[in-house]
Amino acid sequence: MLKTRLASSFLALVLASGVSAADLDLSDMSDADRAAFGEQVRAYLLENPQVIMEAVQVLEDRQAAEQAQGDVALIENNAEAIFNDGYSWVGGNPEGDVTIVEFFDYRCGFCRRAHPEVAELLELDGNIRYVAKELPILGENSVISSRFALAVREVAGDEAYKAAKEALIVLNGDLDDTVLQRLANTLGLDADAVIAAMDSPDVTEQLANTRALAQALQINGTPSFVMGDQLIRGYVPLEAMQEIVADARQER
């Protein structure tokens, strides 16, 4: 990977210096010219090693800008499914002027790290609409957790789902029927009804739709966020989220 990035960066550096593509065609050079060219390049880089990292940084910045532009298009093309799918739980301020969408997995360590910071952001700001997207990708316990949470909402509504979400994000250990029964009872729910609903068509369809949306958005890990016109794949600390929200408001 590093070799590829260095080669691409050096090529960009040479092109930026005014050398034409034809001049870089080593197949058109004699062996002597090719050797001389290689020695000149080597000598220059040995004398100016910082140029390599500068070129790498330029390349990475360019790639990041291209990725961001591509993400804008992905968000625009999937906006309805992202922001208004009709089934994802909405928290925070449902009438907020900025929407944050989070794709999460209850067994994801970074999701657990992000959870209190997202909650603090919503509390401190008061004008953010939050959309929860269940994306269980880390194994059987992740899938069981999401199915349980969505079944709770199907059986007992939004407030019960919120309570289940808060409990599941800190729950450790394997989730068998005994644990699920105990958790449902702790939440004051009909455990048998919740467990029966875990395999309902609606729950299965919601998980399938969210997974398909994640694939369309090129999301391969959790947590991932959509904030305004930005798609952020990975953990974001509170201060950075506040800055992104502020930028989103300025762009409105």
Description:
62% of the residues lie in helices and 10% in strands. With 252 residues, it is of the alpha+beta class. The protein has two domains: 2-69, no CATH class; 80-250, Glutaredoxin (3-Layer(aba) Sandwich), CATH 3.40.30.10. It starts with a helix and ends with a helix.
Please sum up the structure shown.
The protein is built from eleven helices and five strands, in the order H-H-H-H-E-E-H-E-H-H-H-H-H-E-E-H. It has 252 residues and is an alpha+beta fold.
* Strand order within the widest beta sheet: 1-3-2-4-5
CATH topology of the largest domain: Glutaredoxin
Give the beta-strand count.
Answer: 5
Give start-end ranges of low-pLDDT stretches: 15-22
List the total number of helices.
Answer: 11
Tally of domains: 2
N-to-C order of helices and strands: HHHHEEHEHHHHHEEH
The proportion of residues in beta strands is 5-15%
Instruction: Find the CATH superfamily of the largest domain.
Output: Glutaredoxin
Overall residue-averaged pLDDT value = 87
So, CATH architecture of the largest domain?
Answer: 3-Layer(aba) Sandwich
Computed over alpha carbons, the radius of gyration is: 25 Å
Sketch the major β-sheet: 5 strands, mixed
Distance between the termini: 39 Å
Structural class: alpha+beta
Basic shape: elongated
Helical residue percent band: 55-70%
- CATH class type of the largest domain: Alpha Beta
Q: Main attributes?
A:
252 residues; five-stranded mixed sheet
